[in-house]
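Figure S4 source data
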Amino acid sequence: MSHANCHGCSLCLLSCPMWQQHRDVQYSPQGIFKALQHNASYDDISSALFSCLLCGACDILCPENIDITATIKTLRKESFSRGIEAQLNKKVTSLLAQPSSRVEIEKKNTIILPGKALRSNPVRLIKIQSLLSNETDASLSLDDGDDIALALEVGVEIPEHRLHRFLEPLQGAKRLYVSNGHLLKSLRQWLPASELLAPGHRLSQLSKLTKKLNKNDLYLIEARSFHHDHQQKVTHYDQLRHQQGCQMNLDLQRNAIPTAAGGLNAIKPMLNSKEQLRWILSGRNIQRIIVECAEDEVVMSQISDLPILHIADLMEA
């Protein structure tokens, strides 16, 4: 299914951050798709096209089963081929071209790709590594693939040699924990024999952590990986919410409201991240914020004076 199949039902607006901020149907999957159906140019839709957070909430809601996030990525790639957003294309392409050290890691059954934000807190990362190890030791990948994750989000072609250099050390791993939702989705195609998991979701299954949640906590689910496995994960998080009484960044459609942290919006801000966070916090009476994603902790600290903890930090809370 493609954008040509959109019949304008407007269901995608319900959870769309673009719509919430602009209140203009042009800034929504429906608006982009209907504009193209009526022969709009790529210049006409570029602002909305690159405002999309690719959070995946619309994929869950679309009655036509259009893979909206994949379609947005394809449209972005087509925009680059037409010379639109040339500076952004050049910036991401240059990141992919940067040399990286080729240091082999010891082959392990379990490998963690924490990402730049989580890697910046070594103490926490060691704690998470220990929590995720279970029966076998979990090793840290030396290459997080942050540039590849950004290229996937932005729509830039990934050079074959760069992709091979990233994937080769991961071959043969039985389980991979991947912090970046865009990367997680693609790795399931590239490494179909490996079990791919979001570390935040796995930590939320550990009772020694979640038993410390309470009704005064706001628990922030990482939106992208949540929506990739919505049918499976929504039941888990609903049970956790009922058991512990904590609040969550779930809307009435049981989709996770994203924070606009990291990724494309960090290098080319098209949505106001502070306004996005105010949407999440609106009407809540809370005393503490718990996050699954390190980037969410950074942006939330910009507008809230409440204690903000990564879920792994609940061990000492």
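Figure S5 source data
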Amino acid sequence: MKHCIVIGGGIIGLCSAYYLHKEGHKVTVIDKSDFSSGASHVNAGIITPSHIISLAAPGMINKGIKWMLSSTSPFSIKPRLEYDFLQWTWLFKKSATPKKVASSIPVIKNINLFSRDLYEELKQASNDFDFHYQHKGLMMYYKTDKMGEEEWNIGKLAIKEGLKVEHLTKEEIQKLEPNVDLNIKGAVYYHSDAHMTPNEFMLKMKSYLEDNGVTFLANEEVIDFQISEGKIKSINTKNNTITADEFVLTTGSWTQKLAKKLGITIPVQAGKGYRINVKRETGIHIPAILTEAKVAVTPMNGFTRFGGTMEIAGINSQINTKRVNTIANAAESYYNGLQINQQERKDIESGLRPCSPDGLPYIGRLSKIKNVTVAAGHAMMGWSLGPATGKLVSEIISHKKTSTDLTPFHVERFS
């Protein structure tokens, strides 16, 4: 048994703690906040085998630049004269090639399916904790023939990868979603996806771990590491010095900053997204992406969540009300009769998704510091990949053969 410190209390951190605990390790989770906020609490809650195309797709940089002056665009990159940002942008551009995107498709699909299976195992293990989980698939709604063609081309790639995908007419969709009036032309329907209520899961997972001996230390920001003989001996927080055998960095958008203290380059940029909760009956029962607007719609436990935007603008928590209104207005334009009122538009939250330059997460050990495992950079797939990543972290630390090949997720691939 080892004493493992998990730095970071989001979905990746809690899942790592869960599987490490299951392996018999002593686990302490520390976070610079109080475990009640961040991207893991405000995301769309969708498990996404459908999302086989990485964020680093050809043309995305050009789109980001084209949209950067628009306060309502779904994706924007705010230029900054900072080395980390310029390096990440260059690496993103190098990664955004058809060949690299094609090679990442099976990698992304397989780890998503693995993670979905683990969520379903967790759901069935009701002696641990129960949570909202439904496997209803994901609709990619479109309004224009051009977008429909683009989405169906991706759908056909997914079919080749073994996923069940259908191209539906509006009439076929209305039979599946009879309680909403949709202003669309059609949809590409992925049967592979599932959805959850993130804040509920996070609360129940944390309670389960606490009840089973996992220690949580809130408001403990890591300031530095004490390294000796190729290992971390202890970490310094604002309040304490903490020793352990193993250290896991599940620090999301802050990973690059902490990695620098270890002498390692792990490029990560924060991608801000927003969520609006509508705590009234909307009639929506199947999760959807409103493709032209890049807005996600998820029927959660007791409310419907509308989320969107990818704003690469550094680590900040500023709320851009124009982007929030764009999400709400898009939702109203796809669902006839839906109204998102001013109070719902004001009661919003944002989260920072950690984006790697090639759209793949970092999962694995550091080469020079032997007792550090990194699990970060999941971008929009953080929620989807929580259990898979946590399981892999536990296998690494327990010296077991990993459930999937870690080569594509090599932590130092940009060093």
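The chain is about 35% helix and 25% strand. The chain has a mean pLDDT of 94.
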